[in-house]
């Protein structure tokens, strides 16, 4: 699904933020991405989401060399990826329901086909009483859950999550991780960036550890 060969990334003329990355993400796999602050986790997620292109090396996603793709082709690949941002990126004038349903509307599904599915997912993540609320009145934890629901509603082939449990209590964090596990069992590859060692220890998953711009993989 994803292949990095000798990937390097730098911003401008500075030193490389990431260097000599060699790893693969296989279909239906589950992995945590961890490492100290400033190690480059967010930059790596941006590469995986095609928000950045590597400075050097070969990166293939879904069998495509990303360096050879035009804007339309990149946009098409992004629709196969779900992303949970740290800053949520909900649309303030849309309700929680409308924000979560947005990926389905974009691909042309009719509301009568997905309405019950969206409502059921919102209830599952504890937002059953906030379905028609606007983002400005939601708490940080509620926004986080809405962002996660939006990312998973379309059952993406690859899900990238940047600190998805950072604004919720431990019990809800466990519940959200179970949602990711169930999504993985249905065929989605998962990459979760987190500092929470205790949380990672509860799951038998591969760990991708970034340190000083280099990546080490542990199964």
CATH fold description: Rossmann fold
Number of β-strand runs: 10
Strand content: 25-35%
What is the makeup of the main sheet?
6 strands, mixed
CATH-level-2 architecture: 3-Layer(aba) Sandwich
Number of helices: 7
- Share of helix among residues? 25-40%
Please identify the structural class as seen in this structure. Answer: alpha/beta
Shape by Cα distribution: globular
Q: Gyration radius, to the nearest Å?
A: 17 Å
* Average pLDDT, all residues: 90
Distance between the termini: 18 Å
**Any idea what the CATH superfamily is called?**
P-loop containing nucleotide triphosphate hydrolases
Helix and strand element order: EEEHEEHEHHHEHEHEE
Number of domains: 1
Low-confidence segments, ≥5 residues, pLDDT <50?
Answer: none
Strand order of the largest sheet: 6-7-8-3-9-10
Q: What CATH first level would be assigned?
A: Alpha Beta
Structure explained in plain terms:
By secondary structure, this protein is of the alpha/beta class. It has a single domain, classed as P-loop containing nucleotide triphosphate hydrolases (Rossmann fold, 3-Layer(aba) Sandwich), CATH 3.40.50.300. The chain has helices at residues 41-48, 71-78, 96-106, 111-124, 140-152, 170-185, 197-201; strands spanning 2-10, 16-25, 30-34, 56-61, 64-65, 81-84, 158-162, 189-193, 206-211, 214-218. The strands form 2 sheets. A 6-stranded mixed beta sheet has the order 6-7-8-3-9-10, sandwiched between helices. The longest helix is centred in the last third of the chain and has 16 residues, at 170-185. The relative contact order is 0.20.
């Amino acid at each position: 699904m994803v292949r990095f060969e000798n990937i390097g990334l730098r911003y401008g003329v500075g030193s490389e933020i990431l260097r000599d990355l060699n790893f693969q993400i296989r279909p239906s796999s589950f992995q945590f991405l961890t490492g100290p602050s400033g190690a480059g986790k967010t930059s790596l997620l941006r590469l995986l989401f095609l928000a950045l292109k590597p400075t050097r090396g070969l990166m293939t996603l879904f069998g495509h060399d990303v360096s050879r793709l035009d804007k339309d082709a990149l946009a098409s690949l992004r629709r196969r990826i779900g992303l949970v941002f740290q800053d949520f990126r909900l649309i303030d004038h849309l309700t929680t329901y409308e924000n979560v349903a947005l990926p389905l509307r974009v691909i042309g599904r009719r509301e009568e086909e997905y309405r019950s599915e969206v409502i059921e997912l919102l209830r599952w993540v504890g937002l059953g009483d906030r379905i028609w609320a606007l983002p400005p009145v939601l708490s940080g934890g509620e926004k986080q859950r809405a962002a996660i629901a939006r990312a998973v509603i379309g059952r993406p082939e690859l899900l990238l999550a940047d600190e998805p449990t950072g604004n919720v209590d431990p019990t809800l964090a466990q519940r959200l991780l179970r949602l990711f596990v169930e999504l993985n069992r249905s065929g989605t590859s998962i990459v979760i960036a987190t500092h929470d060692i205790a949380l990672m220890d509860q799951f038998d998953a591969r760990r991708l550890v970034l340190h000083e711009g280099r990546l080490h993989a542990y199964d």
